[in-house]
Amino acid sequence: MKKFLITSLLSLTCYAVSAQLNVNINIGLQPLWGPTGYDHVEYYYLPDVDAYYHISNRQFIYLSNGEWVFSVNLPSRYKSYDLYSGYKVVINTPDPYRYYKTHKVKYAKYKSQKNKQTIIIHSNDPKYYVIKGHPGKGKIKNEGHEKRGEGGKDHHKNKGKH
User: Fold this and answer.
1) Per-domain boundaries in the chain
2) I need a labelling partner for 141 at 20 to 30 A (CA). Which of 35, 50, 76, 97 fits?
3) Are the C-beta atoms of residues 27 and 128 closer than 8 Å to each other?
4) Is the confidence at residue 38, as pLDDT, over 60?
């Protein structure tokens, strides 16, 4: 009986530790233009262009002639849209475009809310340094002074692209 209790307790402890380690964090997949403060993001809703961005697939989802289009780029009509300054709403539900009519109304107040969020590329939080192209990527500590490695380039030139 004692062996059974110990084995059960060990199993439960291992399960709890495993569950804690398997918390779904996808910081490294988030784009540089994404808002800070989220360890896990499934989608962004972009109220300015009435489109979604799927983090895992790195695709924009938008309506075109009544059909949902999945593309790595926004449509050409939004070529001047600046992803770095537009407001992003984090949505963590599957296939959020099914609720597009609700989102369009609910998040209309965020249209034209430029630069109201701190975005990842401007964050000094080391947890974002894992994102490709982040200017903090490669920072090292050297006798109490920070040195910046390569990767501190201007990423605002790729407007409308991730």
Assistant:
1) 24-147
2) 35
3) yes
4) yes
